[in-house]
Specification:
The protein contains 17 helices and 6 strands. By secondary structure, it is an alpha+beta fold. The protein has 3 domains: 140 residues, Orthogonal Bundle (Globin-like), CATH 1.10.490; 109 residues, Reverse transcriptase/Diguanylate cyclase domain (Alpha-Beta Plaits); 83 residues, PucR C-terminal helix-turn-helix domain (Arc Repressor Mutant, subunit A, Orthogonal Bundle). Helix 5 runs antiparallel to helix 6 and helix 14 crosses helix 17.
């Protein structure tokens, strides 16, 4: 038998093209049912594009030709559009493959067991694979380019927004616009995480991790540190997810609006300084007083010298004072934490009073004691014993 010029039976091809509208509509219905992210694509646009693609593929099969340059260009442009519409690349590729599969199944069904038509499907498969491979590669290329461009544009917006927040140059309209583009609520609450050591990760690398794992969160640089601005997430959970626990971390207070975001960054920077000194994750909301006093630490060295020296020489007394404060100023609870008899705990507090002149039962005495203990350690005391 002599083969026709086309690998597809002309009558079959003509029939599929004549029925392209219901054929494509059925494919679109399946795609939107099986791939939820396509709900962001307007239905009419989706139907039109799928109908056009399937028409071109069938015409290519009839002409025994692969995709033309303009088909590849259209596929790359579609990749850009799907990226902008938020359809992930694997699902875009899955949609393409679904279209090709439906065309192939229709060809097999039309062959209806006829040996000659089944034989011609071998040629059809090679051409269909050419369309599958080349258009999938083009749509993937366009999608990747769009994401890279979008990331670069967002990176520039993040830089401008952070500079405005850190420098105190918040022009509400422009800053609000940038925040909105970055998928933040300008009037919502913000909380800053300031990190001195990111484990070698740049702000952009951290941003990519944040995009995958931490929702509405942006990352930027400020004065040699990395700042993570959190919205709609618990800052401590973000710290855990990004594994910052090994280095100094300062967490600002949760504050409303863009002015609040700027204030939270300042909180976090203050907390970071204390964190770098004591080696702990510091939350400004819990440790605001120590953070504030830490900035004047050198000026407090002499006024707090008696406490510094006593804590260095008698660390067990300092530990008891701290436990007393941590347990609601109750001697019995302090003793329980220290595994002491209440009389022993009271003796230590009295001994601290004798050596420093600071009575921890009074506000001034307790604050002076805690400042001396928390802001300095034994190595800071010039008079500490060898």
């Amino acid at each position: 038998m002599t083969k026709t010029a086309s690998p597809v039976d002309l009558a079959v091809g003509a029939r599929l093209l004549a029925e392209i509208d219901p054929f494509a509509a059925g494919v679109v219905e399946r795609l939107r049912r099986e791939i939820p992210s396509y709900s962001s694509v307007p239905l009419e646009e989706h139907q039109e594009l799928v109908r056009g693609q399937m028409t071109q593929i069938l015409k290519g099969l009839l002409a025994h030709e692969g995709p033309a340059p303009e088909d590849l260009t259209a596929a790359r442009e579609l990749g850009w559009r799907r990226a902008a519409q938020g359809v992930p690349l694997p699902q875009v590729i899955e949609a393409y493959h679904t279209c090709y599969r439906e065309i192939w199944l229709a060809l097999v069904a039309e062959a209806d067991g006829d040996p000659e038509r089944i034989s011609s499907l071998v040629d059809d498969a090679a051409i269909l694979w050419s369309w599958t491979h080349k258009l999938s590669a083009s749509v993937a290329s366009g999608h990747a380019e769009a994401l890279q461009t979008r990331f670069a544009e967002k990176a520039e917006l993040r830089r401008k927004l952070f500079n405005a927040l850190v420098d105190g140059r918040i022009e509400e309209s422009d800053s609000a616009r940038m925040a909105t583009v970055l998928e933040l609520d300008p009037s919502g609450e913000f909380q800053a995480i300031c990190v001195g050591d990111t484990g070698g990760r740049s702000a952009d690398e951290l941003q990519q991790e944040l995009d995958r794992r931490a929702g509405s969160t942006i990352c930027g640089g400020s004065g040699g540190i990395v700042v993570v601005l959190v919205q709609g997430n618990e800052a401590v959970l973000v710290v855990e997810k990004l594994q910052f626990e090994g280095g100094p971390v300062g967490i600002g207070m949760r504050r409303p609006g863009l002015a609040g975001a700027a204030a939270s960054i300042a909180d976090g920077e203050s907390a970071l300084q204390l964190s770098e000194w004591n080696g702990e994750v510091v939350e400004y909301e819990r440790s605001w007083l120590l953070c504030t006093m830490f900035h004047t630490r050198e000026a407090l060295r002499d006024p707090l010298s008696i406490g510094r020296e006593t804590a260095a020489e008698h660390p067990h007394l300092a530990a008891t004072v701290r436990a007393f404060a941590d347990n609601g100023f109750r001697v019995a609870d302090c003793a329980r934490q220290m595994h002491l008899h209440p009389n022993s705990a009271k003796y230590r507090l009295d001994r601290w009073h004798q050596l420093t002149g600071w009575d921890v039962q009074t506000f001034d005495g307790l604050m002076s004691s805690l400042a001396a203990i928390e802001l300095f350690d034994a190595a800071d005391s010039k008079d500490a014993p060898d």
